[in-house]
Amino acid sequence: MRAANYKKNDENSGKTRIVVLGTGFAGSAFMESFSRNLPRRYRDNADLIAVNNTNYLTFSPLLHEVATGEVFENHITIPVRSEIINHGFKFLEEEIEKVIPERNEVVTEHSNLKYDYLVMALGSENNDFGIDGVAEHAIPLKTIKNGELIRNKILESVRNAVSTEHSDGSTNGKLTFAIIGGGASGVELAASTKEYVDNLQYDYKITGLVSRVILIEAQCHLMEGSGNAFSTRLESLLKESGIELLLNTKVTKVTEDEILLDNGNFIKTSNVFWTAGVKNSSVAAMMGGSHVNKKSGRIIVDQFLRVPGFENIAVIGDNGLVLTQVQNQYVPQTAAAAVQEGNYLGERLASVVRERKNNVPFIYRDKGTMLSLGRFNGLYKLQNGFILSGFSAWLAWRLIHIIKISTFQNKVEVFSDWFSLALHRRDVIRSH
Questions:
Q1: pLDDT score recorded for residue 270
Q2: pLDDT score, position 426
């Protein structure tokens, strides 16, 4: 039974109702930008509602550090309710069931929401591409819980390897860790996993056992979209650190204790971490129709981030598919891009409420690519194409990410974790 029925404002109300679905990077950026660009004297002209199934934001760029004991999970869990209310939005913590664009309506578990304008910022979900065994035997890196599971798996594997060592020093794959997917998340997880496992072996006084970290990528190079020079340098750094790269290699099946590859080879391991891709949120994908890209499942939007045929619906973040100013290239599914889209749309819809014309299209600005590759090591491609590596890139990555964390408390907590890490105090406690 539905507890509320938020009917669309009638003509006498004079208010424009804006409903925001999702309070992640894109949704939060939109609300902050909208509030900043709408003067107080116009606030009574808008009825603002945000809906999400949780009351926190996960600072996902640091998820790989949760997975490898560098930061505590609650330190990158950022509460959003008070911020949403401060921006002038009502907040409904409810599951979103579907969007009915023909009726300007959103259906949640307890409410029917009518809207004048809808902002879809629901993010993405893990995509296993239908590969046999991935859902059952591989751990994705998408949520805080995933990060905890990966950390537990690494700790458990090291412990079991010691107790089941064979006479020849082998561990039957128990110290083999395979990361499938060579995008930014996979690369950072592989580098951090390698360092974590090496540290655990040293701390536990484990000698004579060989650990392996393998990064598997279907394309010919890692992060091809960042350019050949960046990919080549990245692959060189990873190899130097002892990470094995399997490029131009596809996974065909994952079982309880091995990975099958398209070249007929297999990898003996039960430690499989999946970072090979994401798909559109199930709610957004349900919209269907010609405005959904068949390959990616993302919703095609115009230069103003609107859905063609439904101009009162805007899609931002991972849900949307929008071309950049570079021919045949789409805006990437990154937190930085989501924030840019949210900032743009907030300003645009604030103009709508103020009844001012705003015909400026969205322009994506590539601010470079940066990666954390372990202790004092990183890779950073600047906007001008210049590439930094080593300590300077690592430091830039740290500084930029601590700045991007929105709350002072979380900044302090993450900085404290990093300071402890400098003293060799990684988290080695298994969570339950």
A1: 94
A2: 61
- Residues 223-267 pLDDT 10s: 988 899 999 999 999 999 999 999 999 999 999 999 999 999 999
Q: Is residue 198 part of a domain?
A: yes
Whether 271 is in a domain gets the answer yes
Q: Give the range among 139-143, 190-194, 225-229, 252-256 with minimum mean pLDDT.
A: 225-229
Quick: pLDDT tens for 57-80.
999 999 999 999 999 999 999 999
108 in the same domain as 203: no
pLDDT recorded at residue 1 = 46
pLDDT at residue 69, rounded to an integer = 93
Burial of 28 (0-12, 13-18, 19+ CB in 10 A): buried
Tens-place pLDDT, residues 385-413: 899 999 999 999 999 999 999 899 999 99
HSE-CB at 12 with a 13 A cutoff on CA atoms is 0
> What's the rounded mean pLDDT across residues 93-110?
95
Residue 147: inside a domain: yes
Q: Specify whether the backbone of 96 is left (phi greater than 0), alpha (psi in -120 to 50) or beta.
A: beta
145 contacts 432 by C-beta, under 8 angstroms: no
Of 299, 324, 353, the domain-final residue: 353
Tally of structural domains, the chain: 2
The residue segments making up the domain with residue 145 are: 134-276
Which pTM does this prediction carry? 0.91
320 plus 253 within the same structural domain: no
